[in-house]
Amino acid sequence: MRKIILPIFILSSNLFFAQVDPDRISISSDLIYTQKLYNNSFYDQLSRTNILTFNTPSRYIGIQQSGTNRFEKGKEKYGSFALSVSQMIPADITLNDTLKAKLTGCNFGIPLFGYDLFKNQKNIDLIIMTGVNTGRLRIYDNKLVRSKNGYFSPKGTLLLRITIKKIVLSFLGEYDRDISAGKWKKLKYGSENTINPNSFYQSAYSFSIGLGYRLNTDM
Questions:
Q1: What angle do CA 59, 51, 110 make, to 5 degrees?
Q2: What CA–CA distances, in Å, run from 204 to 9, 15, 58, 151, 167?
């Protein structure tokens, strides 16, 4: 997975940060809270599209950089993005009614192409994007079932940003489709692992809210 992530980060950097006029950048650093709703069930332990419970391990907190860059090569062009990293809030889970463990995870949100529908508005952005989410879930705190499940998910995103002086409020909705194998693998130090959890494809809807600080302005 690392061999896949690095080229995507490099491509994203070239798309959004190369040849940018530094006086015409609108970017913020944000703290984000995310709720995921998975398509598939995992022992009925996660929030799904038909079952929303806020105390299940489907909640993430993280940081994000988002905004619209204005390119000045030839005629004026725009590139919009949201690049994020977040951590699942650890939570207790129960597998097969009796096997107790904990679940956590991480997610990297990587943009590939974005466009601001309100590019001529100074204090509001409505950005549509394509990109990928990648990361993993991890089961721990039980030596019988210590496992990890990585995923790679192309996604579509809609992001609303509202700027009030230096403060940026963001509201994001997206859908990603997991195209990985969906299988759990034993952790490096899980040599006593004797139980292999059910396969879990991590396609999901995600909804995020963010509070950020604007780094640059068009002043």
A1: 40
A2: 22, 26, 10, 11, 29
SS3 content of the chain, % helix, strand, coil (to 5): 5, 60, 35
Amino acid identity for residue 94 in this structure: T
Predicted confidence (pLDDT) per residue in 173-192, tens digit: 999 999 999 999 988 765 57
pLDDT tens string 85-106: 999 999 999 998 889 999 999 9
Q: Which residues are bridge partners to 124 per DSSP?
A: 162
Please state the φ and ψ torsions of residue 12, each to the nearest 5 degrees. -60, -45
Q: How many residues does the chain have?
A: 219
What pLDDT is recorded for position 186? 87
* CA neighbor of 87 nearest in space, from 61, 111, 110, 64: 61
Cβ–Cβ under 8 Å, residues 136 and 118: no
pLDDT tens, position by position, 7-62:
444 444 444 444 344 444 678 999 999 999 999 989 888 888 776 665 567 899 99
Contact 87, 62 (CB under 8 A): yes
DSSP state of 198: P
Containing 186, the helix (H) or strand (E) segment is strand 185-186
Q: What tokens does 42 get?
A: 């995992």
Closest CA relative to residue 216, chosen from 17, 5, 3, 15: 17
CA–CA separation, 81 vs 40, rounded Å? 28
